[in-house]
Amino acid sequence: MIASNIFKWIGSLFTDILFIPFRWLRLEVATADLGWWISNAVNWGFLVVLLVLFAYWMKESKRFLDEGTEDRA
Q: Where are the domains of the chain?
């Protein structure tokens, strides 16, 4: 009984609360002319974050390689 309630609460959390921005994007913004631009801006934002993190990772990898502290098996 308790496990069933926990899974129902998790399902309700995702469908009723966490998906509100996506529902807004689908219903309100999709009908406007800016819907395509806003949806793709989210994707471009994720891509920029990914590229920044990848550049940081490569910089740190090069630093460890130059110092000779990289773990070599």
A: 1-31, 35-73
Contact by Cβ (8 Å): 39, 25: yes
Distance, CA of 3 to CA of 10 (rounded, Å): 11
Q: Please, where are the H alpha helices in the chain? A: 2-12, 20-24, 35-67
In contact, 39 and 29? CB cutoff 8 Å: yes
Q: Please indicate whether residue 73 or residue 64 has the higher confidence score (pLDDT).
A: 64
Contact 25, 35 (CB under 8 A): yes
Tens digit of each residue's pLDDT (9 = 90 or more) over 14-54: 888 988 887 877 776 666 666 677 778 888 999 999 999 99
Distance of CA 11 to the CA centre of its chain: 20
The pLDDT of residue 22 is 79
